[in-house]
């Protein structure tokens, strides 16, 4: 991945909902001015959510999500509807496409209700005005909802530019994550990144969180030095200026902590991403659940992406081994990977989640909330690793509010 490409997880996620044949795919083609989505006169052409990352002027980098019709039928149709509704968890702003000759249906109201409950902003798009203009009854019904709406013809490309302006106006201003490390440093500060090169490192490149951290440091006019864990002592001794902070891969934290003087702040990429993508307070609270594990407890290890597992895989091998060695040998682990998220969280004592680098912040927060609703603590890999090695206190010092909260509890 090149540095000048916005990662998918950092793009505005625009999901398009509506009945079959309301014109959702046609709308995507009109917005993008490309034939990205298959258009057909037959209902149900789109069967699963389709994601397309792209640049749309003047909106900028976005992910458009085309969903299956919310009025799909049959047993398979119900599964498609569920997948469409699940998209809300990662949606920054939604477009509800309504055919001008159909009006707002019970299916549309069900989606509207779910969007409101999740506090997801949405726009009603009345399509096919080239066939039937908006009648007064329907317009009054839409106005009673007190939400933005706009009339378009996806086929004739009428109103599309105005729709883009409405999307910009009503998109959440905070859909992008907070700074990764920029709020911890000042212009001119020195930051040292410790990046081990092990069997899990992609050959010839860095992984996404490392690249994003480097970019954030440069955007904040600080100076970055990169080294492997074995060369850290030499790197620190060669610096004329003491670094403001050292950031390491979680797996090397023990050695890096031993080699980094106590007057230098120290944390990990995964802990930085715990607050960048989610809620560091809540993820740190999950450490208490690890501390209180009992024989027979079940633990869910969840990863947002699927990847080829290495013999020393962090999620499936190392973390379970450290838990059995350091806390409780008689525990059971279940493993889950992918963009869907399991519903049976109640059977687990704790969820241990990856850093979520492929998720947008809305989706990661929704996973944290899903655990919270079920009363199941959740912790991410980085927090779990440093806790299991007894150095969570030091890893949290760069974040005073979280640090003192952890010490008090």
UniProtKB/TrEMBL annotation:
Ranges of residues in domain Hydrogen maturase F dimerization: 180-278
Q: Which cellular component terms (GO) are annotated to the entry?
A: cytoplasm
What Pfam family does this protein match (any one)? HydF_tetramer
> Which Gene Ontology molecular function entries are recorded, alphabetically?
GTP binding
Q: Which residues form the G domain?
A: 13-128
Tell me the SUPFAM superfamilies matching this sequence: P-loop containing nucleoside triphosphate hydrolases
Q: Which residues form the Hydrogen maturase F tetramerization domain?
A: 283-398
Q: Which NCBIfam families match?
A: GTP_HydF, small_GTP
**Name listed for the protein in its UniProt record:** [FeFe] hydrogenase H-cluster maturation GTPase HydF
Q: Name one GO biological process term.
A: tRNA wobble uridine modification
List, alphabetically, the InterPro entries matched. Answer: FeFe-hyd_GTPase_HydF, GTP-bd, HydF_dimer, HydF_tetramer, P-loop_NTPase, Small_GTP-bd
The species is: Haliovirga abyssi
Chain ranges passing through the membrane: none
